[in-house]
Amino acid sequence: MLLQQVVNGVMLGSTYALIAIGYTLVFGVLHLVHLAHGEVFMIGAFIGLYVVLWTGGGVVPALVGALLGTALLGVLIELVAFRPIRARGGHFLAPMISTIGVGIVLQEVATRLFGSELVGFPHRLEPVTFRLGPLTVTSLQLLILGVALALMIALHVFVARTRLGMAMRATAENLLTARLLGINTTRIILLTFAIASALGGAAGVLVGLSFNAISPFMGIDMGVKGLAIMLIGGLGNIHGAMLGGMALGVIEVLSVAYLASSYRDAFAFAMMIAILLLRPQGLFGSAEAVESRV
Amino acid sequence: MVRRGLSHALVLAATLSLAAGALSPAMAEIKIGVLLPLSGKASQYGITQEVGLRMAEAELEKLKIKGEAVKLIVYDTRGDNPEAINLTRKLIHSDKVLLVLGPFFSAECEVAFPIANQGKTPIITAAAAKPGIAAKNRPWAFRMALTSDKLNGPLVDRWQAANKGQIKKVVVLTDTKDAFTKADGTQVFPGVLKAKGIEVIDNISFQTGDIDFSAQVTKVKGLSPDGIVVVGLYNEGGNVVREIRKQGLQQPVIGALGMSEAKFIEIAGPAGEGVMVVNPFWADNPDTRVAAWVAEYTKSGKTPNNAATLIYDSLFITKQCIEKAGVTNQPDDLARDRERLKDCWTGVKGYPGITGSIAINADGDAVLEPFVLVVKNGRFELVR
Amino acid sequence: MIDPYTESVLIFLGINTVLALSLALPVSAGLLSLGQGGFMAIGAYASAALTTWYGAPFPLALAVGALLAALAGLAVGFPALRIKGVYLLILTMGFGEIVRIFFLNFEPTGAASGFGGIHQATTLTGVTVTVVVLLLFFAQIRGSRIGRALEALREDELAAEVMGIELTRLKLAAFGVGALIAGLGGALYAHYALFIDSAQFGFHRSAEIFIIVLLGGMGSFWGAVAGAAAVTLLPELLRVIQEWRMTFFGTLLVAMMIWRPWGLIGRPRPRLIPGTPDA
């Protein structure tokens, strides 16, 4: 039983990790806490849902649609809500607060378009359940775990080994210097938003398929947890986000299994607070990162 | 010269029409206040109920009440308690309605009912299921909604019968975040089960808004009960049932009142087959009157539920009361009219509604007839 | 004599103003809090318990509720000493959620069923007096040494420290007094709504207060008043935009961050080199 619970936790954790990776990317390159990322994730789920409903397709078209749609959305957000702020300077928290506004608008627009009801993907897309001895897992859970791992590796390779990745890291280090070195920072920023948002959108489809619970409000909870994981894992640290997500998933599930469900969220926050107090750089972050990044 | 004549004529015409307007008496209207959550996080509940309300409104437009037109003053509370407080006050003191239908949520009722009690205006919720809220605010508050303690008994009986008396021990899964399901799952259902000789091995909790139930269901798996009782609202209940079947559990399942809606079947999908519930409103009821009502409702593109029938019936009970209780609808008579309506509502017995036969008991709660239903082929069927 | 509806709207305006002011104080010191809902809950439940269970007089219950909230504020303030910006935001949000979950499960005060039967003690006069007293208090502070210290703290913490300003005490005080005021707001709310449950004080509430202060201008007390008025009254006055209320506020927030990041009333930060963006 305990083993199954741990497996449950790891599966849940991988969905958290997927969202945290998107936050981490934006923060890592732009030093921006993108508080509307949860809403991008939610829009991704809806895009995937409507692709399936209108084309009669399956998981793959849903994912492709969500990836493209949210990438576009991410670019739009950058153009409308961030570039003007960077151009005018202003309070250092203005970008983050702007994301709050964006999130509110996205949520209300989604409620207008899709209604506030909870909906699910058509049941014909139900995942296949595998029994491995005493354990039960579904094909979808394995997919999510696999996708999260694959993304982590892909991002790592991209950022560390490719030229674009290097350009991204340079932009992250110092925008002005990167520009002086001839890097088209404007394009890099757009690319970052596109990739991070696409990740969020894909996460939305996968979570929607997994939990059958798509609504305009699914972004808030997931968003907050993703943020918490980013902090726990260390701001801007992708491995940290991955492992932090797993850890949170397991702790949450175990708390529900052995205590009561009401304390579930409290654990996420307690963990976060503990990390903030004891190790503000997160489990995997570095100490200097804290000073320069807030 | 012609111009001057024309402008004179225009002024004369305008003055005459103004005078005519001032002299003709205003059309008497029966004003009824309605509070619904039409926007915000829980708007789907209000919007679904509103369809039933507008159906009644359309019919009353033709029927009228004692020859007078009915004016529904509908305000959106957004599911927000402070809004509910402001708007209840507005309806009672500014709009001077005869009575108030709503609010929807139990928490909103908790804050609105005392205001109506103080303002001596009848207030009737056609949805809030939390027990006792009307009882605390007598004599002006009424709860035209489901009461689980009367309805769960027949459900458990039929369940046991359907399983040939084999259900000896069960696990109850309760949503402890919602006031209604918490009371239902931790007090009402266990009481009913115990009275019927069924042991509750464990009561496992989940929260409204949860999407992952793997931990709870794995726990149920370890306990090997004969049956499972899911006490949640339709979203969570649907997904709990889905998880139950996903993890391979085959036990029979019964659900709480919140799960007796069509939306539950939509969310649960194939996993919902065989789940038994109880509800005073059965959408597939072959009874001509109900079937016609459902057909009319479905034109809106939504699926009807008991909240819609309850508000529809509430409006017509109000009509009946206005006609029979000597309500004059004169502005000076407002306090007395409200009193008459309150007395009439208190004495409702055997009213033939779409929701079946309706009576109001001493607590101000509606007493409704239960249908025990089972999910078969994606629809609710009657369990005989 | 005002009609009961208008009175109701004004009372909530007053309560929202109190809550906005409770956040404006720590924000004026550069401390962002998304947890005012938690402090509000403590004030609400504590005062309600005192008047309902023990028949305590309202002013006493108010005071005790506010003080308990203040103590919680100090407790949260300690970790806040070392934490800044977005980290603090998350810490306070976590605190708010933990308080909400606590009251959701705490049976003596009703848990999920909430706490009802509170008798009405909040009046329009009472709320108005509270708001006026608070504004006088803040006007006093702004002109005083403490006010300047808060501003220095907000603008540049390191420089402030070098100048000899006692950061610890100031930060703790800002947090504690802010929490006290939020507790006051909670007690006033409880004794007007007559029923409270944990859902009233959750993240939604904290976020609403946060947005009010942002719209009004970070750290400006009059801005908090303006923000509260805007958020409370606009929907009532423009029932037309009721439907699109949140989209309106969200767009307003983005627009303000672009063109007036210092809020509706606050003052712009002087630029080091005028005309250049802070890239």
Mean pLDDT of chain B: 89
Largest interchain contact: A-C, 47 and 43 residues
Main sheet attributes: strand count, strand direction, barrel closure of chain C: none
> Order of SSEs of chain B, N→C?
HEHEHEHEEHEHEHEHEHEHHHEEEEE
Radius of gyration of chain C: 19 Å
Please work out how many helical segments of chain C DSSP would assign.
11
- Low-pLDDT stretches of chain B are 17-25
Residues in helices of chain B, as a percent range: 40-55%
Number of strands of chain C: 0
β-strand percent of chain C reads under 5%
Q: What do you see in this structure?
A:
The complex is a heterotrimer of chains A (294), B (384) and C (279). By secondary structure, chain A is an all-alpha fold. Helices cover 77% and strands 3% of the residues of chain A. Chain A is built from twelve helices and two strands; from the N terminus they run ααααββαααααααα. Chain A has helices at residues 2-30, 37-55, 59-88, 94-114, 139-161, 163-173, 175-180, 185-211, 218-233, 238-258, 264-278, 287-293; strands spanning 129-132, 135-138. In chain A, β1 and β2 form a beta hairpin. In chain A, α1 packs antiparallel against α8 (185-211) and α1 packs antiparallel against α10 (238-258). Chain B has two domains: 29-146 and 288-367, 3-Layer(aba) Sandwich (Rossmann fold); 148-279, 3-Layer(aba) Sandwich (Rossmann fold). Chain B is 46% helix and 19% strand. Chain B has helices spanning 2-23, 43-63, 81-94, 106-118, 148-162, 179-195, 214-223, 234-246, 262-268, 288-298, 306-324, 334-346, and strands at residues 29-36, 69-76, 99-101, 123-125, 141-143, 169-175, 199-206, 227-231, 253-255, 276-279, 351-353, 356-360, 366-367, 371-376, 379-382. In chain B, the strands form four sheets. Chain B has a five-stranded parallel beta sheet, with helices on both faces. In chain B, strands 7-6-8-9 form a four-stranded parallel beta sheet, sandwiched between helices. In chain B, β8, α8 and β9 (253-255) form a beta-alpha-beta unit. In chain B, α8 (234-246) packs parallel to α9 (262-268). The radius of gyration of chain B is 24 Å and the shape is elongated. By secondary structure, chain C is mostly helical. Helix content of chain C is 71%, strand content 0%. Chain C contains eleven helices and no strands. The N and C termini of chain C lie far apart (55 Å). Mean pLDDT of chain C is 85; it is low at 273-279. The interface between B and C is medium-sized, with 24 and 26 residues.
